[in-house]
């Protein structure tokens, strides 16, 4: 995969042209920062429960109306394949689901094709503010909101979750944060060895042009922004030891107010995970869509609860039921006038068999998955049926693994 063009120079990086800023796996390179090596060194080895026969990873590129040209379709496909392949390398080497979803998400954040990390949309003030969330199957969660000058916000979210495991209480009995925001999050990232950069360098030339286009539309009172691709990408994974993890990463809505927080860093709203137990199957879910509505509906957590309650016949039924009841028909969302766009990916693992599902109410949704038993990454450019109405109809598909 080609390295992203115009990568912001990271504080402490060793190259002005950006070519040495990235390791082969797409992680920003900086002394004493969260590189792949650092992730592997700091990552606890997966809990050695009964080894599963399968490792699995899936990613999504956001819900919306992608309106793809042939060239852009090829670019998206290449990005999906590389992200899944790099995540699978981690899993096949005995790494954890935690690390795999982080590596896969970092690849997405480093791309200018998607609305996350370095490809993020601009606020009304022409700045970039990112959200991200991470959760593993043991219940450790971390979120970051409206953070400027951090090319890979998923590293903050994951580090917050890691520190909760490593240090449940701070000195004097203080409770460590679950979510950090704004400049405080950037300062925390710097003190924890996570790469940061000048905030202006997060604004790409391409997105400056898009910003100008949207400002002109807004001045003409045109209502043509609601069909754009939504604000979240994400990943889910199952490692060889049956542990799961999930992520989301977001650039937010175009022309959002500075300081706006979407669903990605909110517990149970952007991603959700829990491992397999005597009473529960392992579940990992990642969601994309209208952040304000997803923050009210807690879809990932609701999908997990539906499977646990056995009220739903598997993950496909759970996704269909929850999207209809908790999103399309949710009374609390009637006050929202925007299209009810949502897209999600999820996996269920019972210790022997797995189920992978994707569903969406948006016009289109790009997803990809890779199982360790199959060397081929499967990329889906999923679309609603021709006469279906986005926000009122849904499409749900699934495969066993």
TrEMBL record:
Site residues, Cleavage: 231-232
Annotated active site: 232
Signal peptide (from-to): none
Entry's Gene Ontology cellular component terms: cytoplasm
Pfam families found in the cross-reference section: Asparaginase_2 (PF01112)
InterPro entries named among the record's database cross-references: Ntn_hydrolases_N, Peptidase_T2, Taspase1
Compositional bias ranges of the Polar residues kind: 14-24
Any one of the GO BP annotations: protein maturation
Annotated segments matching region Disordered: 1-53
Gene3D superfamilies: (Glycosyl)asparaginase (3.60.20.30)
GO molecular function, one term: threonine-type endopeptidase activity
Superkingdom, natural source: Eukaryota
The family this protein is said to belong to: Belongs to the Ntn-hydrolase family.
PANTHER family (UniProt xref): L-ASPARAGINASE (PTHR10188), THREONINE ASPARTASE 1 (PTHR10188:SF8)
Protein name: Threonine aspartase 1
Source species: Folsomia candida
